[in-house]
Design a protein that fits this description.
By secondary structure, this protein is of the alpha+beta class. The protein contains 16 helices and twelve strands. Helix 6 runs antiparallel to helix 8 and helix 14 crosses helix 16. It is globular. Bound molecules: protoporphyrin IX containing FE. Protoporphyrin IX containing FE (HEM) binds next to helix 12 and helix 16. Pfam families: p450 (PF00067).
């Protein structure tokens, strides 16, 4: 295959202009790994496409580091500024200790009430839009669930939530083609500063909440700094907001396009749990994650050198026919469905239970309140080489 047949993966526009799934189906068989040059002076990187190789790379945290960054765009332009402080961009042994601490935020005692609220909220939101006629599912329903869930998880005071939501929207505007990067950067700083203040407050006024838990915990006898606490609180928004939103939007889109699958879900022929897994595989909101090789190693039979950037394409791995039977079929009853949507290994998504619970609550609410799902226009794709999904979804529920 000539270089011209490879797509330019550094350019977000590529993922709007092309169907990434068609592309990976074309590339994967002959190219389980290939080198991708970058434009200008930016470094090139490896592209890993097959399920087994992507999974193995996620599991190989000893040789493949997350500390410089885990998203292609960040790695191409330097190091992640949260390196060594934020869970996702920290390597062992500190990663393991920080993760143990963060996992307290996801204990059944903390999550129980949060999941109950998610179920109530999803039911109320969906019941509210039925019979509205045409509405935007992205803004009317999908946008509200993840951020409320994360705010509940962190016990953000009600009076502060509007500010946090507004900053988060500005911070995310970088996903649009007309992004104002400065506004987005200022909003990110506002969020970190907000969490630093809240961490200080909760340390002096401890409560029974996740931020107090993180703010008063220690690693090797040393408390986390305010910046570390703030970055790790923010990381729950970074990890949990857009990806959950994209799965909800992708779920409704896929159900509208596959009426027989929707009928099977409504009739109870397929379980909600099985449907959740197929939606997660089908949508794969985080298209890739990336690592930096710490040593020379072999991936998919290819020599990779220390210092090289290695990108792992979940979106390709989740369609690998070596693992998934007829992967381009949306099949809610799929029984072998161990997808890589939440990654694998030491950095496996800490919010996976919550992400699944949000999606399950949405599907349950749809089954209860909706008979027919239709799209009312062509939804616009997100402008990103990291996140897959749609920024709006004109929908009709009956
Ligand atoms: C890690 C995807 C929901 C917080 C990850 C990773 C993936 C992922 C693929 C692994 C990254 C890597 O290996 O470098 C998703 C998807 C979600 C979702 C598709 C929704 C459908 C959430 C939620 C939260 C969250 C709801 C928090 C409330 C995190 C954090 C990490 C992570 C903090 C870093 C874990 C570590 O490095 O040890 N996520 N996630 N995610 N996710 Fe999620």
């Amino acid at each position: 295959m000539s270089a011209a047949e490879f797509l330019e993966l550094t350019d977000p526009a590529t993922f709007v202009r092309h169907d990434p799934r068609d592309y990976w189906d074309r590339i994967r068989p002959a190219h389980p790994i290939h080198w991708h040059d970058s434009p200008g002076d930016l470094p090139g990187f490896w592209v890993v496409t097959g399920f087994a190789d992507v999974q193995a790379a996620y599991g190989n945290a000893k040789q493949l580091s997350s500390a410089r960054g885990t998203v292609l765009d960040v790695l191409l332009h330097g190091n992640d500024s949260a390196s060594g402080k934020m869970l996702a961009v920290t390597d062992r042994p500190r990663h393991q200790k920080l993760r143990t601490l963060m996992l307290r935020a996801f204990s059944p005692r903390v999550l129980g009430p949060v999941v109950e609220r998610v179920q109530e909220q999803a039911a109320t939101l969906v019941a509210g839009v039925v019979e509205l006629g045409s509405f935007d599912f992205a803004t009317e329903v999908a946008e509200h669930i993840p951020m409320t869930t994360i705010c509940d998880l962190l016990s953000i005071p009600d009076g502060d939530r509007a500010d946090l939501l507004a900053w988060n929207k500005l911070a995310l505007s970088a996903d649009s083609e007309e992004a104002d990067e400065l506004d987005s950067l200022i909003a990110r700083n506002d969020i970190v500063a907000y969490f630093m203040d809240l961490a200080k407050y909760r340390r002096d006024n401890p409560g029974d909440d996740v931020i107090t838990m993180i703010a008063t915990a220690e690693i090797d006898g040393v408390p986390l700094t305010d910046e570390e606490i703030a970055l790790n609180c923010y990381s729950l928004i970074l990890g949990g907001d857009e990806s959950s939103r994209m799965s909800a939007i992708g779920a409704v889109k896929a159900l509208s396009e596959n009426p027989a699958q929707w009928a099977a879900l409504r009739s109870g022929e397929v379980s909600l749990d099985s449907a959740v897994e197929e939606v997660l595989r089908w949508v794969t909101p985080a298209m890739h994650f990336a690592r930096t090789a710490l040593v020379d190693l072999e991936i998919a039979g290819q020599q990779v050198r220390a210092g090289d950037i290695v990108t792992l394409w979940n979106t390709s791995a989740n369609d690998d026919p070596a693992v998934f039977d007829d992967p381009r079929r949306f099949d809610l009853s799929r029984d072998h469905n161990k997808h890589l949507t939440f990654g694998h290994g030491p950095h496996f998504c800490v919010g996976a239970f919550l992400g699944r619970a949000e999606l399950r609550a949405l599907l349950a609410a749809l089954v209860t309140s909706v008979r027919e799902i239709e799209l009312d226009g062509v939804p616009p794709r997100i402008y990103s080489n990291f996140l897959f999904g749609y920024s709006s979804l004109p929908t009709v529920f009956r």
